[in-house]
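Hello again,

I reread your note about wanting to compare the complex against the isolated chains. To keep things tidy I'm splitting this into two emails, and this first one only covers the full assembly. Below are the input lines as submitted, including protein chains and any nucleic acid or small-molecule components. They are followed by the predicted structure of everything together. The single-chain runs will come separately.
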Amino acid sequence: MMRITDHPILEDMEKRPVTITFNGVDYQAYEGESIAAALLANHIRVLRYSEKNREPRGIYCGIGHCYECRVTVDGKRSVRSCITNVRDQMCIESQDGDDS
Amino acid sequence: MKYDLIVIGAGPAGMSAAIKAASYGAKVAIIDENPSAGGKLLGQLHKEPKSGWWHGGKTARKMETNLRQTGVTCFQGKEVWAIYPRWKVFMNNGEELQSEYILIASGAAEKAIPIPGWTLPGAMAVGAAQTLTNYHRVKPGRKIAIIGVDPLSLSVAHQLKMAGVHVVGIFLPPDSVFSKDKSSPSKMISYLSSMAHAAPNLFFKMAGNLAKYPFIQHVGAKFYPRFGMKIWGIPLYLRKTVLEIGGAVQVEHIKVIPVSQEGIPNEDRVKTVDVDCVCISGGLYPLMELAGAAGCESVYIEELGGHIPLHSPEMETTQPGIYVAGNITGIESAKVAMEQGDLVGTTVAAKLGLVSCNLIDEAQENVIQARENAVITFQQNIAAGREKSQQYWKEYNSKGVKLYADS
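Full-complex prediction:
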């Protein structure tokens, strides 16, 4: 379980579940969380492959600065998954070296 | 659209300035590229000796409510793409805002320490792990190694532990041009000893631990135990470094090696430790690209974390009407950033004729107070850095250099 449900200091959050799709597979996420956080909660770390050497990449800086976590969202390319929140029925695809 | 003040960045500094100016009657807009206001407040969670738990997320929510109540126009999830004289702010949605006064409160980013394998998914900046854990409430990993010993990495180690994550240890980064002193056991021990006085909360337990072995502080790293010392139950290895991060498509292990007190690795004793996440901490630096692009003169001050825009005691840059506040002016705690924001909000309100100029002195005094009361100091010798900053400002002004004639 990647989600933190029982925290000694932070109180529980009220979260509304939504469904997102990543590379054609449905996953549960919660409103108000970033795409990167939602995918990590579903054990997904590899978000894209690099252009030149097709090396796997995931979230690095978490503040939208390094652009390593970019994904295609509803057909729009290079959206930074660390600073973009999920929406219900959002369709997310990883970016492959080939089509970059 | 015309505003009295445009604030760029809705972190502790930017929000404080916007709320302050708006509460005096200014028409204020605030722009921030994240989905929610708060900036780095959102992930902060630590205990302070007098006031108890500092929960940055709660503070951010309160300030966001204040923004709404004071009538600040919020452009959340929007980016600033350009600032042109004097002054037009262009956003990524094509919208243009105008104001005589701009506050750039863009905050800080983490310095990189490249380590072989650091691009593997699962390796991340320690600040990313902090946001995931305390804001999104998602574990960055099941078994985590932390590389880099500084106030932020130690604070995040504690937060991970509270969230039920297994932190296998805190290690030194390998020696490189990027890690510099951070890879030297003897330099890190003297650094930690010096910080024990400056940051009572964070280093209280560690100072206690070091006190158990008083000889360590005096004779340096030679006798630091190889098994590490525990802080909040997490091993702190000041005599071990991570040579590389490995895994097929994501992080699966790290290669750990003992080092001499000068940081030289003992190649015969490499050990592999299974982890699925590695948090790298290289320290923070002021994020001043936007100020630079707007033509603000900058200066490098090591004590403040890097290049900062030159600024007056009222936080105005070399570009008339462009102000700075928060970590863009030097790496300090959120409370200092908030007071700096208040100062800019008050100064701009005074320039607009909405309040008396006397309030500026008071706001300046509050910044100094917040600095003196700071529980966590991220940089050593902040006071010296601030003095240098003021000295550079005086020198700049005495030369009478002006980039743009007053219009």
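For quick reference: Residues 175 and 264 of chain B are 8 Å apart (CA to CA).

B.
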